[in-house]
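Data availability (excerpt). The following record was deposited with the supplementary files.
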Amino acid sequence: GCAPAGGGSVPVLFCYSVFARPSSVPHGAGYELLIQKFLSLYGDQIDMHRKFVVQLFAEEWSQYIDLPKGFLVNERCKVRLVPLQIQITTLGNLTPSSTVFFCCDMQERFRPAIKYFGDIISVGQRLLQGARLLGIPVIVTEQYPKGLGSTVQEIDLTGAKLVLPKTKFSMVLPEVEAALAEIPGVRSIVLFGVETHVCIQQTALELIGRGLEVHIVADATSSRSMMDRMFALERLARTGIIVTTSEAILLQLVADKEHPKFKEIQNLIKASAPESGLLSKV
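Predicted structure:
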């Protein structure tokens, strides 16, 4: 079994995945020091967005057990870091104070090419009106506007925090990151525009990689091809991104019939776009 160690440090075998590396920690080290040692040994292989559990090899059971509460290293032992396989459910609660709207590339030159473009313009307008009513910051990008034109005239960008040209497909530009850093407590991004499988997908993946929660508005995003759109939404939903609708978003942000802006938001929803078949292709 485990032999008591002399001196100021204790030998520990650190196991992760298929690896096992002998090292040592100070006598009396606890959970935090073990985690630091795992990171120093395996940091380039550990995905910090995963949840982990540290386990200790227990001689009496001849197997690993979850690290006992208050555990301190007093003798030679073997520990391992185990990534949890379970998906941590994203609840997707929205509040105006922690939400930013991203409007992606709703430009004139896309009008003839994008399926149901008229409908997503109509829903995009409604979302931006809702953002103005609720005081939610809006960030807008335009893909290569010199060649593809600016945002369509029907969409009113009054009060937008940023309107930026870009050549990168993702909206996560240095100026966008700087703007997000200036808004205290941002947790959720509501994302819509075109194209679902290119700029929307790449933006969403970059945002969740930065620890933000992403809501994609299915009735306000489209592509030239419905197949591209469908598979992008499926892929994004599997990564924990929330695929939802404009009505669900607006009513979640208001949350209560007694909200002072409820009537105005309700009027926006009543003036909704006609059924286009867009949602049947999710």
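Summary of structural features: Residues 1-6 have pLDDT under 50 and may be disordered.
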